[in-house]
Amino acid sequence: MADTVVYVYAVTEAAIAETLDAAAIVGIGGAPVRRVVSGGLAAVVSPVDATRFSEEALRRSLEDLQWLEDIARAHHAVVAAVARSGPVAPVRLATVYLDEANVRALLDDRAAGFAAALDRIRGRTEWGVKAFAARAEGGAEPPAADAARPGTSYLMRRRAERDRAARGHQDAVDAAEAVHREISTVAVASRRYPPQDPRLSGHREEMVLNAAYLVDQVGADALRRLVEDDRAAQSLRMELTGPWAPYSFATLDEP
């Protein structure tokens, strides 16, 4: 068995790959990045340890959050470097092949799909928008306490608090839907993802929108304006990230 296997970061056009200073791009573990070319396409790859990236080792490693973070950072750094030169289709994290011949076979077998993906994202970037339900301030006064019936008063106050929280949540959901519809009018495509748990998002507020948008430069300017305008909404707190390489839109299963 070979000491190394081939880790694939992304696919781009051969002409774009030719312009890259591959020696200046560092891959996983500090390994040098190189190009594997077939026809009009090129895969950006680097060697990785065969034992560490074996199927069995990967199953164990994918449960190691620190390992995942390190690999994801290195993967993204390579993709971002390629994206500065032109359209790039990022490959799924931890994609490895036994040798470069198998990588060329991938490029040949899926040439049409890669070409379509690269055309779809050409001149466009991905932006992420997250919306969180803003914590309600004040609100309607609870029913007046009845000194003669403290138990009933307590239940009435609790019911009023629950009703107020439910109304606030629904207002936030409705506002997030409106924001998504507005942004979708200036985006080429959009992807919605499940809301993140607060332990992952880093925010105490409930996430009510988690979406990615594919936009050109004009669309990016409009998207930023829409998000900034909607930050004034009382029911939402918005978070905008980007621009990113279009991870969400460079997949081969797009129509």
Notable features of this structure?
8 helices; 255 residues; alpha+beta; single chain; 42% helix; Alpha-Beta Plaits
In short:
The chain contains 8 helices and 9 strands. With 255 residues, it is of the alpha+beta class.
Describe what you observe in this structure:
By secondary structure, the protein is α+β, with helices and mostly antiparallel strands. The chain has two domains: 4-121; 125-249, Alpha-Beta Plaits. The chain is built from eight helices and nine strands. It has helices spanning 14-19, 55-61, 65-83, 100-109, 111-121, 150-184, 198-201, 217-230, and strands at 4-13, 34-38, 41-49, 88-90, 96-97, 125-133, 189-192, 207-215, 236-244. Strands 1, 2, 3, 4 and 5 form a five-stranded antiparallel sheet that branches. A four-stranded antiparallel sheet has the order 7-8-6-9. Strand 2 (34-38) and strand 3 (41-49) form a beta hairpin. It starts with a strand and ends in an 11-residue tail after the last strand. It is found in: Gas vesicle. InterPro entries: GvpL/GvpF (IPR009430).
